[in-house]
Amino acid sequence: MTAFAVLHLKAAAAVMVTASHNPPEYNGYKVYWGNGAQIIPPHDHAIAAEIEASPPAKDIPLLPVEDARRRRLRRDLGEDVGRAYLDAIARQRSFRGPVAELRLVTTALHGVGARWLRQALGEAGFVHIHEVAEQREPDGTFPTVRFPNPEEPGALDLAFALAERERADLVLANDPDADRLAVAARDASGGMRSFGGNEIGVLLGHYLLTQARSAPARPLLIATIVSSTQLGVIARDLGALYEETLTGFKWIANRALEVERSQGAAFVFGYEEALGYAAGTAVRDKDGISAGLVFADLAAWCRSRGTTAWGYLEEIQRRHGLFLAGQRSFTFPGATGLATIGRIMDGFRSAPPARIGGFAVAAVKDYARPARLERDRVRARGRIAGHPAPLRHRAEDQVLLRAARGAGGGGVRGAGDRAGADAPRPAGRGLPGSRAGARPARLSPDRPLTGCRRGSNNGVQLGSKHPRSSRGRSRPCAGRDPREV
Predict the structure, then answer these.
(1) Catalytic pick from 20, 194, 464, 469?
(2) Quick one: which H or E segment has residue 83?
(3) What DSSP string runs through 421-433?
(4) 399: which strand partners?
(5) Mean pLDDT of 406-421
(6) What is the pLDDT of residues 192-204, one digit of tens each?
């Protein structure tokens, strides 16, 4: 909502205080520039310098609220901004058939999203909307969950229980500040199963690209370097532009604006695997409400075709190849944890593994350094496969590994006060019934597969990505399986 309001009100900037999906002891904030996107250099550095030069917040004199209003320095926003937001995200819907039969369960995980998701869905014609009552109202103590993160094991237990009682077709879950979306749907067996973040991204991206009521001439899709590469394959196969950025929606949104200006593109969709999705240009940030609305639209469209979202994912995999990803999470709290993560990162950087899952590591890219270190001594080109422009970035504590051509890999990446691992899955041989002669889905030898990045809140994540051929037989990817230790 804040990102939308910046553009709607033509504001110079905005600040949103949020701890996102972190535990009660955390707090934080986002800063948006006048373009509606989160700040990047040089603005972030200039703001940080001003903060450093300022006295403590308690010593800064403030105008009384009424004086600020009289001097037109403070404006209280009314319902018109929310109304404009709902109207804007409703335009992202593609399906105009019946939706009333779809049964939904939603949860806000004690955050602020309940009202907005319910209203957006209701105005779209969904009538069977069952909210997890225990998690509907904002509550910063998050009494029903250990972590208010929909990725966490147990976070959606109440939603799944309600879905069984109501025989719901779909579960939509937002994190507390409603910028992320988790989804579960019934599979062919009738069981409720959660999608991984990459699977949701692939579903939304393909749906928005192929089912838009008015397709742009130069559609643009964007993902981050730690997300699945399947969206890039889809973009290539369907003739869309595709970009990859560093981790974080500030990079996705600002790169989208840049490509729109320089290449006349129309941004259609962007995502990163940690359940962040942006559909269209109404909100220049990840937004769980609009993403939830579009996914419900997608599910209703699937129902009208006699299938489910899981069936639709299999259709995509049969055409564009099967990609697998999984994740493991670890927590290192406090100052001691931060030091532990530092040692992990330093060790990973100084002595990265030579092999991952039986495959030789072909290259290591350290985002804290300007050049790529390649084991095979091949001269670094600094380009992303399928994309002619160099990946420009500032120094960042992140390392990516690339395994041998067509193989998977593993790495480490920081994510809040948690550490996680994308663990390899057994190699499959594609999907049953695939078309004859289908092209194997492979990664370019210039594409990083996995990553290591230290976050600002004491976290590390380990990751792997596995492209698979679309020939032969195997099950569709079951999605991420996070485990905390």
Answers:
(1) 20
(2) helix 79-90
(3) E----------TT
(4) 366, 452
(5) 48
(6) 999 999 999 999 9
Over residues 124-135, mean pLDDT: 97
Same fold, 2-79 and 80-320: yes
CATH fourth-level superfamily of 80-320: Alpha-D-Glucose-1,6-Bisphosphate, subunit A, domain 3 (3.40.120.10)
| pLDDT attached to residue 415 | 47
3-state helix, strand, coil in the chain (%, to 5): 30, 25, 45
Check: CB of residue 169 under 8 Å from CB of residue 186: yes
Going from N- to C-terminal start, the domains of the chain cover 2-79, 80-320, 321-468
Whether 20 sits among the annotated catalytic residues: the reply is yes
pTM of this prediction?
0.81
How far is C-alpha 21 from the geometric centre of its chain's CA atoms?
A: 13
What's domain 2-79's architecture?
Answer: 3-Layer(aba) Sandwich (3.40)
- Reduced to 3 states (helix: H, G, I; strand: E, B; else coil), residue 121 is helix
| Mean pLDDT within 237-254 | 94
3-state secondary structure 243-265: EEECCCHHHHHHHHHHHHHHHCC
SS3 135: helix
